[in-house]
Write a structure and sequence with these properties.
single chain, alpha+beta, three-stranded antiparallel sheet, 55% helix, DNA-binding, cytoplasm, Nucleoid-associated protein ICJ85_15220
Length: 107
């Protein structure tokens, strides 16, 4: 029994390291999103750090329109990045979890 516990603790530590490695790797995964008319383009990492924003000069003439574009496009980009982030981290966590009956948390 003690050996099983030590084995589980080792596996848990290994999984924690894999999660940290995955978080670092997600800093290099880029998500691109643009407005429907391509007047605004945003790139962010899967960890939701904004890397670039490209704004068409036409949008600079109307502050309210630019704000609307930024809100809509940033929210779409963040939603995409969050899905990628959660899927990657869930896959690593599921891989490292011991098979305990009734603990199907990551199905």
């Amino acid at each position: 029994m003690f050996g099983d516990m030590m084995n589980m603790m080792g596996k848990l530590k290994e999984t924690q390291q894999k999660v940290e490695d995955t978080k670092k790797r997600l800093d290099t995964v880029l998500i691109d999103e643009s407005s429907n008319d391509n007047k605004l383009k945003i790139t962010l990492t899967a960890n939701r750090t904004i890397k670039s924003i490209d704004i068409n000069d036409e949008l600079l003439e109307d502050k309210e329109q630019l704000e609307d574009y930024l809100i809509l496009t940033l929210n779409k980009a963040i939603e995409k990045a969050t899905k990628v982030n959660e899927a990657e981290l869930a896959a690593v966590a599921k891989e490292g979890m011991p098979n305990i009956p009734g603990m199907d948390l990551f199905k």
